[in-house]
Amino acid sequence: MIGVTTAIILDVRVLRKDGTYSVKLRITHNRDQKYYPVNVYLTREDWERTQSEKPRAEFKVHKLYFNTIEQKAIDIVRYLSPFSFEAFERKFDQRTDRSKDVLSYLQNYVVQLNSDNRAGTASSYQCAINSFNKFMHSKNRKKLNFGDITTEWLSEYEKWMLDNGNSLTSVGIYLRSLRTMFNIAIEEGSIAREFYPFGKRKYQIPAGRNIKKALSLSDIKAIIQYEPTTDNERRARDFWIFSYLCNGANVKDIARLQYKNIDSTCITFIRSKTKRATKQDSKPVLVMLLPEIKEIINRWGVKPIRLDDYVFGILDDSDNGIKELKKVQAFTKTINKYMKRIGVKLDIQINPTTYTARHSFATVLKRSGAPVEFISESLGHKDLRTTETYLGSFEDSTRQSYQKQLLNFQ
Length: 410
What we know:
Strand content: 5-15%
CATH architecture of the largest domain: Orthogonal Bundle
Oligomer: single chain
Helix content: 40-55%
Largest sheet: 3 strands, antiparallel
Number of strands: 5
């Protein structure tokens, strides 16, 4: 419209505490001017870098964003007849696009997860929030907008995490939660897909694959034959063996085991981790009821009144997601505490945690020649690639035997 001009400017009238100024869209109509924040804050020097002929890195991202904002304003002005600031403001709503607060999105998602009794996942997202807050604090920033998260920001966060002693696995877990927020915001129409910083030729979240540690058969035999000195040791050892023999079942699945899951020949259950999948995608885990498994159930199981009763009495029907999580975490901690003592007594080099029991199950089957497909089905995995991450490497004696063949010229 004639008589209306637009411009993106650095509003140097107010200096913020962190030494930056607000970038704003300026609309001029009949010599009247109004300013609209675009939720980006820059120093004078960074503003000049953004305005250079060929800006680089984050400054290029800022410039593209500013161009998008101004073009949006121009398109609105073009179709307003007559023009008024009030009409413009109704059309131009900068609460969308990149101005949304990511941490608020994450916090709301945590609330939603807890209400769905997904306390474990909620705890993981809360850890991510805490980490992002610490990173922002290190940069003297309090708010984290979607527009702040560029490929450079993500790389900087990764470096900060590693410099502070965190693993690539933790980086991957936290940034996947951030990626989820981007996907939700894009699906809602709150931000434009062009600002999505993840993917090919952008920032790629590190896989952070750890070397999986599994016990040798001789170590497992030593644990099974170990004579506990206290009831706490016996309980911890028995539940470790139960996990190992029950296809590497994790403590949460053991705690959730009900008598209706057990018949005369086998135990059948669906992993809690995959219960939210559709019925077609959920794979039941089938465990043959070995005498050793029966013995542990008889020793530690609670006498049932109903088929819906929990086998080991670790959980209660009244437990919500948060209470269940705390009970499972406490029980896992107790098992690992006494298994560590047993491991020291038996001179086992790898700490025999509940995590180790699951990987030992998979790796022993692999070393025995079992097909990966069978191992995958036993673990309740939907993807063979997931199973491969559980499979430990061959024992040193096996490696040595194969390597000797390199010099066997007969």
